[in-house]
Amino acid sequence: MPGPTTSVMWFRRDLRLRDHPALAAAAGADRVVALFVLDDALRRPSGAPRLAFLYQSLRDLDAELRRHGGELVVRRGTPENVVPAVARDAGATSVHISTDFGPYGAARDKRVDAALGEVPLIRTGSAYAVAPGRIVKSDGQPFRVFTPFYRTWSAHGWPAPAESDPARISWRRGISSAGVPQDPKLPPRLILPDAGEQAAYATWHRFRQDGLRHYSDDRNRPDLDNTSRMSVYLKYGAIHPRTLLADLGKQDETFRRELAWREFYAAVLHFWPDSARDYFVPSMRRMPYATGKIADAHFAAWTAGRTGYPIVDAGMRQLLAEGWMHNRVRMIVASFLVKDLHLEWTRGARHFMRHLVDADLASNQHGWQWTAGTGTDAAPYFRVFNPISQGKKFDPDGNYVRRYVPELRGLPGAAAHEPWQGPAGVPADYVERIVDHAAERTRSLANYRRLRGRPSNGHATDR
User: Which of 30, 296, 314, 371 has the highest CB neighbour count under 10 A?
Assistant: First the structure.
């Protein structure tokens, strides 16, 4: 009689045991080996906060597996070498994965599939409620604009959370493992969110109970801690968006749209993989950008939160202090880099990818392109974020600014957004503005008009 069958469950951006279609498929074998590959192609561009959170998530997954009689096999190397080696060591008859639709992940999985030979690489499910590529226009073409995508995505729907009970799985142990690396050294005082599946569910339940009812009104207020903080857990798949969607009611439309933006950007990257590094609107490559020593000095001031514009500086300092930044502030600082400092969006996107714990390639790159006016938007470049009016509107009492820019704690209320207007001028330990927003906005729009070869159409806004 044949012996028991063994499958390999290769975890990637799905570090959980519940609501896991690929794991449920792998559990069709008699025994399951849990595997994670430390792929240097993905680790190299990751900063210390993101790596530390990944390693903590892996330790949590290993602990959960051990509770159910399993263990996580961790090996370092190229996946096309590591995965077949583990399959051979385990005598596996199949390897299971959640489908990766990113440009690197899709190419990697194709190489692994070939290297496995007769052992099939079985793809089940994905990191999305609706897999990228499934939602297209009536003519079969992909969507380039969010609103019609959202209507079609909503009408399409998604399945209920999948059943995958780790207690019912017979786990295979005893395969050699290198173990999870030690966390890299983090910046002083940086505190990461709790990692793992249980932390993801706890964070979601807190937000559902305390924050969701205020989300529509307060989500743009960085001074109020009223965002879900779920992005980091979605990034690593500690929870599936399908789980969140199943908990939402009809009144939670605003939050549902935010989840759809993540799915939209994943679909855009799937259809236009070059947009991860290149301009979604090719003509925008010709926009004149600043270079040289002054440009580099401006970039350094921006990364350090020393531009002289309080809401920009608060956001950049929050990024360094927490590995996270409020989404409204992400748009403000991105607009400032591109349209006030005239630097390419790619520089800012790389900085975010290195420092954000929740850095997701599709959402990050296309969020930057949207703000920079080079991406998926019907009226791109005329949207210019005014860092002063944005600060006053969304941080009306200045509490967010004072939290991250202590030099301004002596300024009351909204005065923190214009320290140069006070009777004593800019505090001695703060910095003067490195550029004049009004002048740089005018310059950016003039550059755009020249690029397009026509006068302004009257739609320019300074928000």
Answer: 314
